[in-house]
Amino acid sequence: MNEPYDAIVVGARCAGSPVAMLLARAGHRVLVVDRTALPADTVSTHYMQQYGLARLASWGLLDDVLATGATPITRMTISYDDAVISGFADPIDGITATLAPRRTALDPVLLRAAEQAGAEVRLGVTLRDLIVEDGVVRGVRLQTADGELVEERARVVVGADGSRSRVAEAVGAQTYEVVEPACFIYYSYWDAIPDTGFHSRIGLGQQQVGLWPTNDDRTLVAVMRTRDRYADFRRDVEKNFHEVLDQVVPDLAEQVRAGEQAERFTGIRYPDNYYRVSAGPGWALVGDAGYHKDPFTGKGISDAFTHAELLAGKIAEGLAGRPMGDVLAEYTAERDAGTKGAYAFTTMISDLDLTPQLQGLFRAVSGNEAATRQFLSMVGGGISGEEFFAPANVGQIMAAV
């Protein structure tokens, strides 16, 4: 029988690779597996907030990501009707820009760092089942690309395998605080569009447009509409895509038409917003496997980094002698407490139909430089949603109008 690992991580993208890397750097024996032969593209906004980049910097990986050719973003414009919030957050942990690297650029950096730290990596390997003994997860049953079945054991198994997590399914992890998704998104990439920073505009009629630079001087262009219009949109994606651009950002629509579409359209109807029970005897979930929200606020990758670091630290405490059940319970409690405000804000705004109160606050912020920096600091992770939306703070912003 093979010697047990300290941890087996299922999923080697932006949640799984950091968990494996951090545990391996701490001297633990780690196996990370993924059914995909990475690098490979995946549906993503690519966007990383300042707090996510701060994690990369602390791990010594930010320069490696910059070296992939991702364009630094130093200006953000978020708008609705006549409210235009434009500027940038103050530095957060020394980070003065944001990035939106392609996943074919970012994911290999993370996986390579895990491997260099000493984690064993197996790609093209599928999780078939978990090994459970006396109610405790003790390992995994894997199938290799050539069909061989392999068993590996570990003190803890981490599911970092996305919203359709096989680990979550195998342990019967239930969801809670579920909010149905409101929209769908289509996006592609364009060459020869001037770099105007990050743009996100909600237009009348519950539709949205986003543009931001990514790798190799390409710009991601995305449109969003409510799910009841999905079937109609799919009948002529190109026509409807440009229709949304014309209606929401007519000035930028001309720049898009003058550019050159470099790749096909990608579309997705979002899964539910949810938390999952993310820890149990011998197992834990991280990233979208344990917590998923609408990509409108662009926090998915940065949250994956933050929670990977949190989970790796807790597992290390368990491996050092604290009861593993206790440290994993602390992980989920701290994750939930730290994301409560952002989750509420995301689910409130992502139906693209702002309440009159929020519209009024957006207008007040748009004419106030200090409030703009504070709002963008909340977006970037410098302050919490609870701090920004605190009645005293909102009252101060509104009083300045």
From TrEMBL:
The protein here is known as NAD(P)/FAD-dependent oxidoreductase
Q: Which residues form the FAD-binding domain?
A: 6-340
| SUPFAM superfamilies membership | FAD/NAD(P)-binding domain
Q: Which Pfam families match?
A: FAD_binding_3 (PF01494)
